[in-house]
Design goal:
Length: 316
């Protein structure tokens, strides 16, 4: 009985403004900055936090010289606050779209290797049939899209699981392989080499995906198998647009999905180096949160993704 009363009291006292403050505090770890982020005075934010902690019955943050650090129970509460706000934001956008005569919203997370082929074709057909459906595409690397999925900022995602325990939270359905290519700009000193080894490239500048991405992990594994140290001259970049711009304006080397660089290779803006790499990179696939019913547009998008990836995934 006491537990039910406590739960009812929490529901009655907790407001979305409280959740917004918690998310702002999680981002800033500073009460003054968090108050500014949600447009309230700092004393008001302080009172709100006290009310929230009183409602939950435990401290959410430890106050120390380094700022505000979440307690273990605070971490779980902050994750809930972030998910709830993301759900509300997407619901509000969907409702506004319908109010203006649209047909809802679909948000998809996608790695850059999936975007030019599977995702582009699926979304093109989806929009041809449902022109008023508002579609958003977010993310570029698997670690990004998994985080977006976890935070409920996307409805579904194309990518890979990035840690061994994520299968407990997400369902994964393989869809397609992602062939990787080592590329340089057309004017690169190595552009016309017919034979090269990986060790000959280590001293050159590199543009690499973040260390948390599966492609980067695979690259480091290949270096380890070859007995090579990681390049020392590295720009870490998750943005495909920035990577392509950096490549064309420097003598850097990059490992990118074939689907991303295909048109650049055909236009002779980039040159593929004669080194096979990334052969053991696992295929990407459909990621969705476990035990969650998706909207009809999301389910239809999944059907289209399966349609355009049919036959492209074979075990290597």
């Amino acid at each position: 009985m006491t537990q039910n009363v406590s739960q009812i009291a929490l529901v009655n006292r907790l407001k979305f403004k409280h959740l917004a403050l918690l998310v702002a505090l999680d981002d800033a770890r500073n009460l003054h900055q968090a108050a500014e982020a949600i447009n309230v005075a700092q004393p008001s934010a302080s009172r709100m936090l006290s009310d929230i902690e009183e409602a939950f019955g435990f401290l959410l943050f430890e106050r120390n010289a380094r700022g505000m650090q979440p307690t273990p129970l605070g971490v779980a509460t902050l994750a809930y606050a972030r998910r709830s706000l993301a759900d509300l934001t997407r619901f509000a956008a969907d409702l506004e779209s319908k109010r203006r005569g649209g047909h809802g919203q679909l948000t998809v997370g996608a790695i850059m290797g999936a975007a030019p082929d599977v995702l582009a074709m699926a979304i093109a057909e989806l929009k041809s049939e449902r022109p008023l459906l508002n579609v958003r595409i977010l993310g570029e690397t698997s670690d990004q899209v998994v985080q977006l999925l976890h935070r409920r900022e996307v409805d579904l995602a194309l990518g890979r699981l990035t840690t061994p325990l994520q299968h407990n939270d997400f369902d994964f359905e393989p869809l397609s392989r992602e062939a990787m290519r080592l590329v340089v700009r057309a004017a690169h000193p190595l552009a016309h080499e017919t034979t090269l080894s990986l060790d000959a490239l280590i001293s050159w500048p590199w543009i690499l995906q973040p260390i948390t991405s599966p492609a980067r992990a695979l690259f480091e594994e290949e270096l380890a198998r070859a007995g090579l140290a990681s390049p020392s001259n590295v720009v870490e970049c998750a943005s495909i647009f920035a990577t392509l711009q950096l490549l064309q304006n420097s003598d850097a080397v990059a490992m990118l999905p074939e689907s991303v660089v295909r048109d650049y290779l055909r236009a002779h803006l980039l040159i593929e180096l004669p080194i096979e790499i990334g052969k053991s990179l696992s295929g990407f696939g459909l990621l969705r949160r476990k035990h969650e019913t998706l909207s009809e547009p999301a389910e239809y998008c999944i059907a289209l993704l399966r349609k355009y990836s049919a036959g492209s995934f074979t075990e290597g």
